Amino acid sequence: MSFDLIVKGGILPDGKTADIAIAGERIVAIEPGIDAEAGRIVDATGNLVAPPLVDPHFHMDATLSYGLPRINASGTLLEGIALWGELKPLLTHEAVKERALAYCDWAVSMGLLAIRSHVDVCDDRLLAVEALLEVKKEVAPYIDLQLVAFPQDGFYRSPNARENTIRALDMGLDIVGGIPHFERTMADGTRSVTELCGIAAERGLMVDMHCDETDDPNSRHIEQLAYEAQRLGLQGRVNGSHLTSMHSMDNYYVSKLLPLIAEAGVSACPNPLINIVIQGRHDTYPKRRGMTRVPEMLEAGIKVGFGQDCVLDPWYPLGTADMLDVAFMGLHVAQMTSPADMRRCFDMVTRTNAEIMGLDDYGLEVGNKASLVVLDAGNPVEAIRLRPERLCVVAKGKVVAERTQQKTRLSLPDRPNEVWRRHQAG
Ligand code: FE2
Fold first, then answer.
1. Domain 2-51+364-409 in CATH 3.30.930.10
2. What is the 3-state secondary structure (H, E, C) of the chain?
3. What's the CA-to-centroid distance between 206 and ligand 1, angstroms?
4. How far is the CA of 58 from the centre of ligand 1 (A)?
5. Which listed residue (94, 183, 213, 389) is catalytic?
6. What is the rounded end-to-end Cα distance, in angstroms, of the chain?
7. At CA 222, angle to CA 216 and CA 227, rounded to 5?
């Protein structure tokens, strides 16, 4: 028997050691000691072999634009939106596409092979929509890219946003977005949730809304989002992104809200790097940290992932396309430090994020798409601790990135000459 590719000796996320045999774009066997010919053999002995990292919340039209035309001095969401408004008229199709493709290269190098990106539809030219539709097609052999029609300046607040959202969906965007907390009034925000969910239901699309990205505890659009998901039968197809206002809400209200979100099958995607940086900017001390209530939502049976949101753009001056950075920050801010919780954080940036995106054939199982990442770590928690080298990335059956193991040479008296940060207890 002959395969196209065998990944040998890797440690799977569940701790078992197995070889993975691949034919074409599919995994055809996972078992120890596969002894067969293959077009290529990747030696993953002793390294973690995981399904690819997944980012369900990103802005690929804005990425890598940091400093254009200036930086965000206050660091707030509102200045970020204003700054993006200054940059928008200067955007060109070519520049948006070039930056997005450069970002996709980074993503591949980090084992990040599925991304949901919002695309601002408030520029009447819709050039970012066109550019990212082209990018989606070009990266399809290695990245699953979903595009959300996102009325950044407000579905009602921005003059043509309503019409442009429909045009963008007609052009082929996959998902309906929104930003209720940025509409002129709470009532408009509520109305926008209702209308946008209606559009999604009518077209058979998923919904992913920027929802309550504010420190205002009275921003409760998630309640309406859950209500509409329930009313329109959209269970399992609606995601609320950010939900930062929940950090500041009254506990009694949250005790009513969480079961409603769970019952409506609405998932949640906080964005820890961005939430910790942007929220609480109007506070003195104690200063709120702005991340939504992750352990409490998980406890209530709500599907919760972690998204990246921004890399080098008007809202965030850093970022690396590494979802393990995101998990690392999420773990800290949500204080998810028990062994089970840390392990869960790894699942959130892989399997749960894939579920939020509704990806088919994801995961290391026979019959699924042969996409995986080999990490220089012994297990998922160590991967979060080290955020290590991605030694090999396989996308749909093909090796798309490789890198060598990094060790530091030491020059210290009476000490080993090499240090390796991996750790074996005992
Ligand atoms: Fe966002």
1. no
2. CEEEEEEEEEECCCCCEEEEEEECCEEEEEECCCCCEEEEEEECCCCEEECCEEEEEECCCCCCCCCCCCCCCCCCHHHHHHHHHHHHHHCCHHHHHHHHHHHHHHHHHCCEEEEEEEEECCCCCCHHHHHHHHHHHHHCCCCEEEEEEECCCCCCCCCCHHHHHHHHHHHCCCEECCCHHHCCCHHHHHHHHHHHHHHHHHHCCEEEEEECCCCCCCCCHHHHHHHHHHHCCCCCCEEEEECHHHHCCCHHHHHHHHHHHHHCCEEEECCHHHHHHHCCCCCCCCCCCCCCCHHHHHHCCCCECCCCECCCECCECCCCCCHHHHHHHHHHHCCCCCHHHHHHHHHHHHHHHHHHHCCCCCCCCCCCECCEEEECCCCHHHHHHHCCCEEEEEECCEEEEECCCCCEECCCCCCCCEECCCCCCC
3. 16
4. 6
5. 213
6. 41
7. 145
Q: Is the pLDDT of residue 174 over 80?
A: yes
Ligand 1 center–CA 69 separation, angstroms: 20
Taking residue 381's Cβ as centre, other Cβ atoms within 10 Å add up to 17
The CA 19 to ligand 1 mean position distance, Å, reads 38
**Mean pLDDT over residues 273-277, rounded?**
97
Rounded distance from Cα 57 to ligand 1 centre (Å): 6
- From the CA of 360, how far away is ligand 1's center (Å)? 24
CA pair distance 305, 276, nearest whole angstrom: 16
Provide the residue ranges of all domains of the chain, joining segments of one domain with +.
2-51+364-409, 53-357
Distance CA 206, CA 239 (A): 8
* CA 197–ligand 1 middle distance (angstroms): 18
Q: Which of 346, 303, 302 is nearest to 324 (CA)?
A: 346
Annotated catalytic residue 213: yes
- Are 224 and 180 contacting, i.e. CB atoms less than 8 angstroms apart? yes
Measured in Å, residue 303 CA sits from the centre of ligand 1 at 18
**Above pLDDT 70, what percent of the chain?**
100
pLDDT tens-digit series, residues 40-78: 999 999 999 999 999 999 999 999 999 999 999 999 989
| CATH 3.20.20.140 for domain 53-357 | yes
Look up the pTM and report it: 0.97
Place of tokens 């919780």: 341
